[in-house]
Structures are given as C-alpha cells and as structure tokens.
Amino acid sequence: MTDIPFDFPELTAQAREAAACAANLAPWSILEAWRLFHTDLPRFFRALNAEPDSSLLYLFYYLQFTRFAYRKYQERKIPEDVFYHTFSDIGRWEKVCFEHTGAHGLEEYEWLSLHLRLQLFALGRLQFQPVCCPWDLPAVYGIQKGDPVLNVHIPSGSRLTPSACEASYQQAARFFSMQPAVFICHSWLLCPALKNLLPSGSNILQFQNEYTITGVDAESRQAEERIFGCLKSCPSEYPENSYLQKSAKTWLLSGNPLPAGYGVRRLFS
Predict the structure, then answer these.
(1) Where is the N-acyltransferase N-terminal domain (predicted)?
(2) What integer is the mean pLDDT of 235-257?
C-alpha cells in the first residue's frame, strides 16, 4: 500500500484506500509514469488503457502525480488554496466514476490531465484554462482567432450565484494578469433554449446573460446529460423530478433541440 500525498476535498476515504492499494497493480514506478505522462501523453494513455484495472490505476497515478504538481505550484508561488481547490476535481470525478461503474477510479483522465499539467485552475466557483482563441469572435471584442483568452468551465458544486461567478472572473483576471480579460465558454448553460425553460431570475440564466452567445453546438447532448443525469434515445424515458427536468422533457417531446452554446464575455478591471 502506498500513501496518498494529499487529503483533497471531495475524495472519500474509500477512494483513498482503493487508490493506495492499487500500487500493487501499477505497471511502472511513480517516477517512470510521471516521465511518460509528460513526454508522451498519448502513449501513457494507450498503455494504461490496456491494463485491466485502468480506471483505478488512473486514480492511483494521478493522486501520486499531485506531488509533482504541488512542487510546480510552489515554484510559481501559486497559493496553496488554489492547489487544493483545483485538485478537488479528482474526488469529484472519482464519485462520478463510482456512480457509473460501482468501482473506484477515474474515467475523465484526459480532462484531469489538464490540472496536472498546470493548464487549468479552479479560482473560486469557476475553472479557467488559458488557450488560444479557437473561434472567430465579433469584432467588438478586439480578439482574433489565435489570441490568448480564458476558457471557462463550470464544475458541479455550490450554487452558481452571480456574485460567486463575478468574484471568479475578477480573480482569474488577476491570476493570469489579463487586462482586459476575455472569457470564452462552450457549455449547455449557454443553450439559448433555456430562456424558454427557466425563470428569468434563475442562476443559470443570469450566468448565461453575462455572455454574448456566438453560436450553438447542434451535435452536443450535454444539456440532456446534465439536466437528466443520463442520455436516452427517447425523451419520454427521461425523469421529471425537478422543474427544469419537466420543462426540458416537454421541450424535447415537442421536437425542439437543446444544443450547447458558444459564448464570449469581456471583463475590464
């Protein structure tokens, strides 16, 4: 059994114990795995996915890799609370894996690799990923495709209040030294149809109203997955346990889509 280096929020004691015991299944030493993770990430994924207990091994290795990430945080003088807040995502996604499979592990290993490579940070209620803008934006934003922007992600957790989101945007602008900061987002929360399904004062619509929606992702079913907790081929099979579930189900049964939206917002200091 190998010790787990940090007691991250959201990570259960059972998950910690399962990860610690997985050391006996590990095909590489922690240092060998870390080197491969950084030098050839696709190969790391392929090799680990070939293992019978791959999801559990991802949990084991990723928790061990946080040792190295922590050193980088210290080198960059990033506050410790940002470290713990960012890596609480491991526990969050471990719970999702357990709910889906009944076994401890990680299925979102590609997503969580961003955290370990210091390409994504949790700053308050939201997560931010510095990227080169992948889209052509309206000229008013003064941003061209390829310019630096902050990609916004919305983890599950506490209520998505306007004040919490605004505090996150302000913190991100300071953290990344971007003035003015331009934020982009691809999310089901930016689905234009939500204006027909939710009260105008809802937190989701207040979040959406902070963005200029520049397009929709017609292929995305993220809205259905997030609203109902699953995907069904026939909308009539969806549950109706909340106001949003009831209204979204009626919307879908009427033949209307729920695409994810693309949005942009600009923040001046």
Answers:
(1) 27-118
(2) 96
